[in-house]
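Marked as duplicate of an earlier ticket. Keeping the data here for the record.
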Amino acid sequence: MKYSWILTLAGAVAALLLPLQVQGAAPQPPPTLPPVTLEINGDTLHGSQLTAGKTVWVLGLTRDVVQYQPRMGHVEVTQLVAADGTFSLKMKAPAPVVSMWLMVDMATGRYTIASPTGFLPRHVDYHGNALKSNGLGEINQVETYLPVADIVVIRPGEGVWTMTAVDGGPDDDDHKADSRTRFVSESMKRVGDSPAPPKKIAKGDVVFILDPRELTHFEIEVGR
């Protein structure tokens, strides 16, 4: 009888411990990645908190005056990230103070916007519905009421695509000078090793609308 009682007690203890063991084995959410950072110091771009060994993409929109004439600049850089999660690039000339730089970690889709000291790019609320759908209810177009616009679509972990269009120009989908520019997602160009442009914009994508004249930006995270 004594031996039987010991077995029963051992079984009760095991039953008490089992739920604790199952609870301890529950999967944990992945750790939150730190935000990426970008600094523009004179002629040097320096990014940090990036994915080591992967690709970073930087789009720079600049504005300055040359021989009394206003000038807009467009810079794109694709570069591998060092083992310490940083990248540095020395440009041919200092970045204009009035400039806006979008950096994207291609591996994760994390992004940031930065400018040189002395200028702060404005975040604007885009009035109207910028995302347009086709006859099947799929979002496949971005429309802006800007005479010239840069569009960037980020699909975290998969790719980045971009396009610049001028109202009525060859990259404006309706080819009409009607005070708006329209972009079709599958007509965009791929960045780096991104796959072919998507036929539709999906939930979780981040869509940037950038105004290179006023250096303002607006972003939409699809599905939020």
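See parent ticket for discussion. The first strand starts at residue 37 and ends at 41.
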